[in-house]
């Protein structure tokens, strides 16, 4: 089953829910980066959070989540953008993809210790104007609570966030999540009802492993709250890197450095940190770039 996200609002408009299955997204992230089991769980939750928050994007807006922390994983990044009006492209990487830890005392992946203490930075880039950047301290390092902390502290939106990745030695079995946000002006009773539902909800991974759909995940959090579906999105791993971007970066090195790469180093290669795609540039390719530099007028050449 392919990954999907749905959004819904309560009939009276007091809160909204976004819920989704991200099993394939997390599986592809794990395979591209050869993530250890514990980092699969940690980065899997972060890319799932990015996918869910991506449902609020419009047009060419982008959203990125960056964890900077002192645990063995040393930091992680995930970002999301719309690849069409009804599809979201998500990508992510970890600084130490192979770091691993034993299961914690409850027999779960020790994501909190893998992540450690630090900060979560959320950057929302708009089509025009300055990006919005919010930074909050990590609450637990479990990612779900940290994203909830960001939404509460930085965006002033009381939220329930549940993210889960189920994996075994054979790979990623299930992944997904739910974010419920209370709308401004919602009464205390709505917040209390939602908190009660969240604490009574079956674990996300158990629901997905049992075959729950995105809609069923949303309903499990808001059982007695009369949800109305609003939008839905397909989700896929997608990177924005390209050979052209690599070439532009190389052109920025200037003629002397390019000559050195071509004649002394016999070419170069660049590996995208998000998707691991390898761009190989032969000496002939580099000479071609030098030709492009030479053909520019001095005033335009940089
Ligand atoms: Zn890439």
Please sum up the structure shown:
By secondary structure, the chain is an alpha+beta fold.
Could you please describe the fold and organization of this structure?
The protein is of the alpha+beta class and 302 residues long. It folds into two domains: 234 residues, Hsp33 domain, CATH 3.55.30.10; 54 residues, HSP33 redox switch-like (CBS domain Like, Alpha-Beta Complex), CATH 3.90.1280.10. It contains ten helices and twelve strands. The strands form two sheets. Strands 7-6-3-4-5-10-1-2-9-8 form a ten-stranded mixed β-sheet, sandwiched between helices. Strand 4 and strand 5 form a beta hairpin. It is globular, with a radius of gyration of 22 Å. The site of zinc ion (ZN) has 6 residues, from loops.
Order of helices and strands: EEHHEEEHEEHEEHHHEHHEEH
Class by alpha and beta content: alpha+beta
Q: Let me know the number of strands.
A: 12
Shape: globular
Q: Mean pLDDT, nearest integer?
A: 92
For the largest beta sheet, what order do the strands appear in spatially? 7-6-3-4-5-10-1-2-9-8
In CATH terms, the superfamily of the largest domain is Hsp33 domain
Cα gyration radius (Å): 22 Å
> Ligands in the structure?
zinc ion
Poorly predicted regions are none
User: Under CATH, the topology of the largest domain is which?
Assistant: Hsp33 domain
Amino- and carboxy-terminal Cα gap: 49 Å
Topology summary:
Elements: E1 4-10, E2 15-21, H1 23-33, H2 37-53, E3 62-69, E4 76-84, E5 87-94, H3 111-115, E6 118-125, E7 132-137, H4 144-153, E8 159-168, E9 171-182, H5 188-200, H6 204-209, H7 214-221, E10 227-237, H8 243-251, H9 255-263, E11 268-271, E12 278-281, H10 283-295
Parallel strand pairs: 5-10
Antiparallel strand pairs: 1-2, 1-10, 2-9, 3-4, 3-6, 4-5, 6-7, 8-9, 11-12
Bound molecules: zinc ion (ZN).
Zinc ion (ZN) binds at residues 239, 241, 272, 274-275, 277.
